[in-house]
Amino acid sequence: xxxxxxxxxxxxxxxxxxxxxxxxxxxxxxxxxxxxxxxxxxxxxxxxxxxxxxxxxxxxxxxxxxxxxxxxxxxxxxxxxxxxxxxxxxxxxxxxxxxxxxxxxxxxxxxxxxxxxxxxxxxxxxxxxxxxxxxxxxxxxxxxxxxxxxxxxxxxxxxxxxxxxxxxxxxxxxxxxxxxxxxxxxxxxxxxxxxxxxxxxxxxxxxxxxxxxxxxxxxxxxxxxxxxxxxxxxxxxxxxxxxxxxxxxxxxxxxxxxxxxxxxxxxxxxxxxxxxxxxxxxxxxxxxxxxxxxxxxxxxxxxxxxxxxxxxxxxxxxxxxxxxxxxxxxxxxxxxxxxxxxxxxxxxxxxxxxxxxxxxxxxxxxxxxxxxxxxxxxxxxxxxxxxxxxxxxxxxxxxxxxxxxxxxxxxxxxxxxxxxxxxxxxxxx
Amino acid sequence: xxxxxxxxxxxxxxxxxxxxxxxxxxxxxxxxxxxxxxxxxxxxxxxxxxxxxxxxxxxxxxxxxxxxxxxxxxxxxxxxxxxxxxxxxxxxxxxxxxxxxxxxxxxxxxxxxxxxxxxxxxxxxxxxxxxxxxxxxxxxxxxxxxxxxxxxxxxxxxxxxxxxxxxxxxxxxxxxxxxxxxxxxxxxxxxxxxx
Lengths: 429, 195
Fold this sequence. Notes:
Chain A has helices spanning 5-15, 19-33, 37-51, 58-71, 74-86, 92-105, 111-128, 133-144, 154-163, 167-196, 207-216, 218-232, 238-256, 265-295, 298-309, 313-330, 333-350, 355-369, 377-386, 390-396, 398-413, 415-424.
């Protein structure tokens, strides 16, 4: 009977029940029908215990750091820096958009924040130079998926917590895949720029001018150095690094750049608290859901089914790519990862796929799903920032999605891409 | 519809004010979390003295932050859901569906509040491992904090969510009854999720 909680949950989800309630209603209902009322109390306890976690606290801190940097004009410095470096190429602002996203990804773990922060600045600028609005919105959305791949990353913190992996290992494993997505997008921009004769953004900056722009962007660009350096050097845990990043953003915004006012703080804190509360409740509910997953025999049944399809891990990984891609079209990465991680992770680990490698496959796959039509979250954000229709952006984004799909296949079949840095630094054996 | 509007107005008033207080406390809590963690780092590296309490204190703050502000996020439509079906259906049918979904959520919340009450009561038996009320400041022996004070965060959060849910159900009924224009608009949350 309990096996039915998964199909039941999916039905609830498809008719539009919020994920938080669905995660609890489906297993709760079945436990109640089974007369296992004591296990319902266990479900409740696990929601609470799931939220009561120190590693999870990195999420509110990184959210806060992201909000602070946006408000404090740090995003603008990154764009100016990117412009000084790449503005003179054909398709310059499109390149600037991608590079800014890569830099922004080192400060924030959120694709949505990336799209709304960079989009509101770059889409109007690109339009003024003669790019179509749909193209500008599409490249913004496509490049924003780098946000949760290059560390820090909200969904990797969630995955690490739900699956008991090391946050540091996942962060490190995301660096190269994130850079690959960025470089891949730039290659596609170049191909399109030559074909359609895109405008050049600026004259070429001289090196002294570039030095000037780098100096202005120096303090913001130190953030990833502090976060990663601190974690790698064993100075802070990821949670502490996140708190330090938030404090650093306040200091830089208020005292060095002077663009963040004390009166901005309540609003910034309130937004960060609100968005994190939603995520924390979701994680708590997912942890409760996970206990029911193991009480039922669903994983065994599902594993038997998946293994009956093929014995070859490569073919299975390909099927998982497809599954995650489809899931990502409809469901946001965070909820998808908490629901599917506990079910799929153990199957592939037992087939000999490294847990960290599998985490990266899942994270990148589902993150790209954020920019995939019809239901990609960042497509909607890009649409509301630019005023362009989602359908139009969805068509314009296709060449960039093709690049991202190629990167997904590369990191799926070449473990070394993601595993080399965590191995070299000793975070994975 | 008039009696429903009559019930909605006071509830909306209460929610407006209670949630505003909740947000204010949550804002202080997230700010204090940063401070507490910085104290932990500073004491460990600069003063070479690892403190026992920051870890638990920060979790205490985070749980209360979540409990007190989650209902505000829910009220602003910040809870992630797939609303494709509702959009695709004819308006009237979609409105009925959204009412059904709200009632399903209400069932989860009511069961949750009941279970939460037992959970909180079990918390009086346990004391926190590191958090103490600093009563020595006023000349008394310091007392360890009962875990029930931490457990209460989720319980209170569920009660607030229930209040918002009932408000949303009333709004949905009023909209179905054709008086949707009489409703005051609710604020919206524009950035959802950890993505």
